[in-house]
Design goal:
The protein is of the alpha/beta class and 348 residues long. The chain has eleven helices and 17 strands. Strands 3, 4, 5, 8, 9, 16 and 17 form a seven-stranded mixed beta sheet that branches. It has a six-stranded parallel beta sheet with strand order 12-11-10-13-14-15, sandwiched between helices. The protein is globular, with a radius of gyration of 20 Å.
Length: 348
């Protein structure tokens, strides 16, 4: 039996529980395809799965890796429109297709969804098998490493700002933690939508990079008065929208930056799942707190097309071989990055 190299998690814990192993190459079913993986980016999802599940049991052993770019290697007998040699990326959400939410196109809240790289073996391996319906043609003007840096962060940022928050031209958006993947694409998407962007980060270098992406004003979140700086930058009014993917550590201050009738859209909780909420501020200023979960297939197609045309660009901090998977996890956990950490699985 042919084997491949994969990063496998057998138990939850520290970085050393991610083991590089030789495992059998998976075989696609009739409705699936197999990709030879060229690149796969890391996300906080990979760290969270490794540490231990927060929202339900994870089947172990598991190979994580959601952001996949590669080349079709084998095609199931029922698959049409794709053939070996085609280059593609992957929409990671596998939904039931039958529930009321799927029927209405609201697939991101399908109660029976699975995620490739969380519930189904993902792309941190030489090969991965995925449903053919989850394939998206690789943007022609981007290489595999650039493509792998986009799906989760670009799709999520678009879903947060455009679909859920309804960001409009002329509004002001605050984006905390500008060095993160979702934040770095959020800056670009907000500017594409015609908004003014205020961001926060921790160093002068990251501040410079945020401005290069389009941020109009950047504050250092280590400054004691950074919230006041944000409000002052809006002439005392506050911002219309906050895109917060950080979690409990930033929620209270993010709410403080909002103008009356402002809305905060959230998608993550890796810095904490709870915080102390002063309820009166919500109704006194008529604030809205909105949840956003991933992106739809069509939203991912949209942002990939914008990247292919040059309106959005992948933000890549580090590219590592699969043999350095532990280092990739370290970079994420220690916030030692601006943009994505991408594992190069196959050298082009």
């Amino acid at each position: 039996m042919r084997e491949m190299l994969a990063a496998v998690i057998h138990e939850h814990g520290g970085r050393d529980v991610v083991q590089l192993e030789h495992v059998p190459i998976p075989q696609p079913s009739a409705d699936e395809v197999r990709l030879k993986v060229h690149a796969c980016a890391l996300n906080w999802l990979d760290v969270g799965i490794r540490r231990g599940p927060q929202f339900g049991a994870i089947p172990l052993p598991m190979t994580t890796g959601v952001d996949i770019s590669g080349e079709l290697d084998a095609v199931g007998e029922n698959v049409s429109g794709w053939q070996a040699g085609d280059e593609a990326t992957v929409y990671s959400l596998v939904t039931c297709g039958d529930c009321e939410y799927c029927r209405e196109g609201d697939v991101t809240v399908c109660p029976d969804h699975q995620i490739i790289g969380e519930h189904i073996n993902g792309g941190l391996a030489n090969y991965v098998v995925v449903p053919a319906r989850n394939l998206i043609p690789k943007p022609k003007n981007l290489n595999h490493i650039e493509v792998a840096a986009l799906p989760v962060v670009a799709g999520t940022a678009w879903h947060m700002l455009i679909t859920v928050a309804g960001l409009s031209a002329g509004e002001t958006v605050f984006i905390p933690g500008a060095g993160g993947g979702v934040a770095s694409l959020g800056i670009q998407i907000a500017k594409y939508a015609g908004a003014r962007v205020i961001a926060s980060t921790s160093t002068a270098d990251k501040s410079r990079k945020a401005r290069e992406l389009g941020a109009d004003y950047v504050v250092n979140y280590y400054d004691q008065d950074w919230v006041d700086q944000v409000i002052d930058a809006t002439d005392g009014r506050g911002v219309d929208v906050v895109q917060d993917n950080v979690g409990g550590k930033t929620w209270a201050d993010s709410l403080r930056t909002l103008a009356r009738n402002g809305r905060m859209v959230v998608c993550g909780s890796h810095s904490g799942r709870q915080f102390e909420l002063a309820i009166p501020q919500i109704y006194h200023r008529q604030l809205s707190i909105l949840g956003a979960n991933g992106a739809t297939y069509n939203e991912l197609v949209t942002v990939l097309d914008l990247a292919d045309q040059g309106f959005l660009r992948p933000v890549i901090d580090t590219v590592l071989p699969l043999s350095q998977i532990h280092e990739g996890h370290r970079i994420l956990e220690e916030h030692d990055h601006f943009g994505k950490v991408v594992m190069q699985i196959t050298v082009d």
